[in-house]
Amino acid sequence: MTQPNHQAAFLTGATGYIGGRLAPRLLEAGWHIRCLARQPRKLEQRPWRDDPGVEVVAGDMTDESVLTDQLRGCRVAYYLVHSMVVSGDTYSAKDRQLAETFARAASAAGVERIIYLGGLGELGDDLSTHLESRREVEQLLGSTGVPVTVLRAAMIIGSGSASFEILRYLVERLPVMVTPRWVKTESQPVAVHDVLHWLVRCLETPDSTGRVLEIGGPDILEYLELMRLMQEELGLPKRWIVPVPVLTPRLSSLWIGLVTPVSASIARPLAEGLRNRVVVTQNDVQEVMPHDALGCREAIRLAIGETQSSDIETRWSAAGAIEGDPDWAGGTEFIDAREIKIDAPPAAVFAAVCRVGGGNGWYAADILWRIRGWMDQLSGGPGLRRGRRHPDQIEFGEALDFWRVIGVERDRSLLLRAEMKLPGVAVLGFEIEPETDTRTHLKMTARFRPKGLLGLLYWYSVLPAHNIVFSGMLRGIRREAERMDAAATEVTTTQ
To answer: How far from 168 is each of 91, 189, 233, 234, 404, CA to CA, in Å?
Structure first.
């Protein structure tokens, strides 16, 4: 652990949507940051990871003594952790446990202040379970005497955020929408760029210590109006929207999960939150930290531009814990291994491999991939809706359609784990070995461990399709790698 530093900040949620964007801005402001991550490998490809002001420690905040030691020497701590996936009421209990542990550890470590990003919402009997949990976390973080700065925000508009992608996909995909009545609920969205500004500005504003500050953009709009703004900024024809009273948050989340890349389990708390009017009721933040925030149209336009240019810093789908490569010892294991020689160097082959998924497709039999995605989506899986964050770049932990990156070694290997609904566990690996400076051996291995008789039947039913899908994929990777290498060679010779 580093020595105490008066300009050191402890950052939880560094692999998440807000934390991943906050880290480089804290560095720009002259702060050293100590990032807590359950899987530090998820930060390896971040452009700010190798900055001398960055330290990464592994942990999940469940061990109080370990967390206390990790917090020592940090002047402030950002608490950017909360559960989103609903499993009964367990996410509230988990949030409560983590907040209590963090508060005790911060006090024991001598942390001067905790900064927490919570949620807007007027108190009352109708407050959603999700927002109630956020309020409870606020109280628990301050329960041991460490001053807490709470920033409360409503919907955050930014490229890659779950709220933004729900809004964008609903408008893009549905020219006619039968919607829940919460589309008439007012909210005061805030651009992610403004949220980050206030999170950093807190550090140089002593008057923000120990206060609850509500943040929002200048516009108070119904969700219906946000849809119309999105439609206009996307240049789409008018959308016809019919609100009906019978769509509950549960039904709404299933509907969102069917139409957008965001799963129903994540959409549920978001849909519950939208039934509450969430607007700024006190404007103290403008007295303490005055700032001209973006309006909704400007924020939507900026997020669309970043999405279209693939300039997305962080994305909702990369947050949270992921499972690693399963232990394949014992039990039934099926392997489908294929190899190919490619007249291109390993770097070009790796680049071609890393282009799989999302808008790039899967090099061969894309219609079969789409059918498999539709089947998975209908059974409650992610399908192909999640796409990918960037057309060329891959990071550990991010989603590629219904796969998750669980291993990546530049110019050498890529390992994906299936997150589709399956009667078993499946991984797909690519191993790259150089034969000469200009020739490479690529091995692709699909491995499946079935669960019960259904798993066995599933493997044998998809085996015939492997010859089409996997063989075609290898040939497509070869074509792309050789094309990229030829293009790079041409550029070099003309310079």
So the answer is: 27, 15, 10, 9, 23
* pLDDT band (50, 70, 90) for residue 261: low
If asked whether residues 87 and 200 sit together in one domain, one would say: yes
Size of the chain in residues: 495
Token digits for 36? Answer: 């807590």
Could you give the CA distance from residue 478 to residue 440 in angstroms, rounded to a whole number?
10
pLDDT, residue 189, reads 94
Least confident of 5-14, 112-121, 430-439: 5-14
If you average pLDDT over every residue of the chain, what do you get? 85
- Percent of the chain having pLDDT more than 90? 46
* 474: in domain: yes
Average pLDDT over residues 371-396: 83
Q: How many C-alpha atoms does 252 have within 13 Å on its Cβ side?
A: 23
In a domain, 133, yes or no: yes
CA distance 111 to 72: 7
CB atoms within 10 A of CB 204: 10
Token pair for residue 299?
Answer: 């924020």
Which of 317, 348, 378 finishes a domain? 317
CA angle 264, 266, 272 (to 5 degrees): 85
What's at 297, amino acid-wise? R
**Residues 177/242, Cβ–Cβ less than 8 Å:** yes
Q: Are 109 and 72 in contact (CB under 8 A)?
A: yes
Does residue 400 lie within any of the structural domains? yes
Q: Which of 214, 210, 187 is nearest to 198 (CA)?
A: 214
User: What is the identity of the amino acid at 125?
Assistant: D
Is the separation of the CB atoms in 259 and 169 below 8 Å?
Answer: yes
Please tell me whether residues 24 and 168 are part of one structural domain: yes
pLDDT on residue 266: 62
- Total domains present in the chain: 2
Task: For residue 445, give its domain range.
Answer: 334-494
The domain boundary, picked from 261, 290, 317, lies at 317
Q: Is residue 324 part of a domain?
A: no
Q: What is the CATH number of the domain that holds 175?
A: 3.40.50.720
Two tokens, residue 183:
């589309």
Q: Could you tell me the two tokens for 359?
A: 């808008």
Pairwise CA distance, residues 247 & 260, whole Å: 17
Neighbours of 106 (CB within 10 A): 26
Q: How big is the CA angle at 203 (ends 112 and 300), to the nearest 5 degrees?
A: 135
For residue 490, the domain's CATH number is 3.30.530.20
